[in-house]
TrEMBL record:
GO terms for molecular function: oxidoreductase activity. InterPro entries: FAD-dep_OxRdtase, FAD/NAD-bd_sf. Keywords: Oxidoreductase. The keyword Oxidoreductase applies. This is Glycine/D-amino acid oxidase. It comes from Actinopolyspora xinjiangensis. Pfam families: DAO. The keyword Oxidoreductase applies. Residues 20-363 form the FAD dependent oxidoreductase domain. GO terms for cellular component: cytoplasm.
Length: 374
């Protein structure tokens, strides 16, 4: 067995050379998977190329979470995940990470019946008071501009870096090792199982989970998912919210893709789809898009027209339409190396699904690792 340096490990011990599962990427997805695996007694090594976790999309994310999504598969994960974000008992910090500022989802009036059904489903599952408002000019601080709104008072936002850190802390407490500053360069088959090649040495694994986010568009050898993934730019800006602007809930308009969320007491994060594909993850902010975002959202938040600008952040997420791969229900895709699984692309919604997705992915991977001894 070869030895491997400890690298800049994050609250971890020595880097093992043989583990049940290697998780590649310490974003919110990798952390969610690692925490469940470690909790179930699986030996886990998380390898992250950056010097600390949340270095990718997770560290730039707005973290808006709501139970509703037009895609039923995502809605199911989002609903379960919202329950987890509300449950203080699941977190090392002892407090639930959710900031329950409420969520308003605006849609075309033709969607009213579908939104009412969704509200009923959410309330049945979470015992909340989600409801639909039609014919209102404004709701929870946002103008609806002719749309109908699904209001979820129990939704809101989380800080994705805090969630990721909490899960990694739980994983380490359960025996996982986190190797930061360690880039995976490739994965090959050796004796029917994966061998992970890193810039610090080689690790033998029973299975590998690739949770590399936007980098899945240009994966290292052995981590290429079965269906194509592209990276798409996401750009958000922060502005000051001064009186008489009122506090508001999180906001998404499904007709346009415009969104906003409060950040602390006097700031608001705003965003609009930035349809730039395949740009490098660290591309410079696009000032014209930032200005267009302010103009477009003024229809919903008129005070934005004079709000002082604070900053703009640009990053990317992984976009694609994953194939259904049983028994893992579209959450994992096979690669060209046996027992190496690529997590589906989250299309800009990886935070609101992470708790439930992490649980399901971990369960599927445990089954895969155990297939060795059948
Ligand atoms: C500006 C912005 C706002 C967003 N807002 C929301 C929101 O409001 N709600 C929501 O639900 N979602 C939101 N998203 C989307 C969400 O943040 C992402 O879907 C989610 O963070 C993806 O997490 P991940 O762990 O899959 O990927 P990432 O966080 O990108 O993590 C992947 C990790 O893998 C590492 N890695 C890559 N290649 C290698 C390698 N070869 N070896 C080792 N490590 C490697 C990277 O360094 C990175 O740390 C937003 C995204 C952005 C960018």
């Amino acid at each position: 067995m070869s030895q491997i340096g400890t690298g800049a490990s994050w609250r971890g011990g020595d880097i093992p050379t043989r583990v049940d599962v290697v998780v590649v990427g310490a974003g919110i997805t990798g952390a969610a998977v690692a925490h469940h695996l470690a909790h179930w007694g699986v030996s886990v090594l998380v390898l992250e190329q950056a010097s600390q976790p949340s270095a990718g999309a997770t560290g730039r994310s707005g973290g808006m979470v709501r139970a509703y999504d037009p895609d039923p598969a995502i809605a199911e994960l989002a609903q379960l995940s919202l329950a987890a974000y509300r449950d203080a008992g699941r977190w090392t910090s002892g407090r639930a990470p959710l900031h329950s500022v409420g969520a308003v989802t605006v849609a075309d009036p033709a969607e009213e019946a579908a939104l009412r059904e969704a509200a009923e489903r959410i309330n049945g599952a979470l015992r909340t008071s989600a409801h639909v408002v039609a014919g209102h000019a404004e709701m929870a601080g946002a103008r609806l501009a002719g749309g109908v709104a699904l209001v979820e008072p129990a939704a809101g936002w989380v800080a994705p870096t805090e969630v990721t850190a909490d899960w990694l802390e739980q994983a380490v407490a359960d025996g996982a090792v986190i190797g930061c500053g360690m880039r995976v360069q490739g994965v090959e088959e050796r004796g029917g199982r994966p061998e992970v090649l890193t810039d610090r040495g080689v690790v033998q694994a029973g299975a590998v989970v690739s949770a590399v986010g936007p980098w899945a568009a240009h994966p290292v050898p052995g981590l290429r998912p079965a269906s194509p993934v592209r990276s798409r730019s996401i750009q958000v800006s922060i502005v000051e919210r001064r009186p008489p602007a009122s506090p508001h809930s999180t906001f998404v308009d499904l007709r346009t893709g415009l969104y906003a969320k409060p950040v602390g007491l006097d700031r608001t994060l705003i965003g609009m789809p930035h349809l730039v594909w395949d740009a490098p993850f660290d591309s410079q902010p696009d000032p014209a898009h930032a200005q267009a975002t302010v103009s477009a959202l003024t229809a919903h938040f008129p005070w934005l027209a004079t709000a002082p600008y604070v900053s703009t952040v640009r990053a990317a997420d992984a976009y694609g339409t994953p194939k259904e791969v049983e028994p893992v229900s579209g959450l994992l895709e096979a690669t060209d190396v046996p027992h190496v699984w690529s997590v589906r692309s989250w299309n800009g919604g990886g935070v609101k699904t992470a708790p439930a997705a992490g649980h399901r992915i971990a369960a599927a991977v445990v089954a895969d690792v155990c297939s060795d001894i059948r």
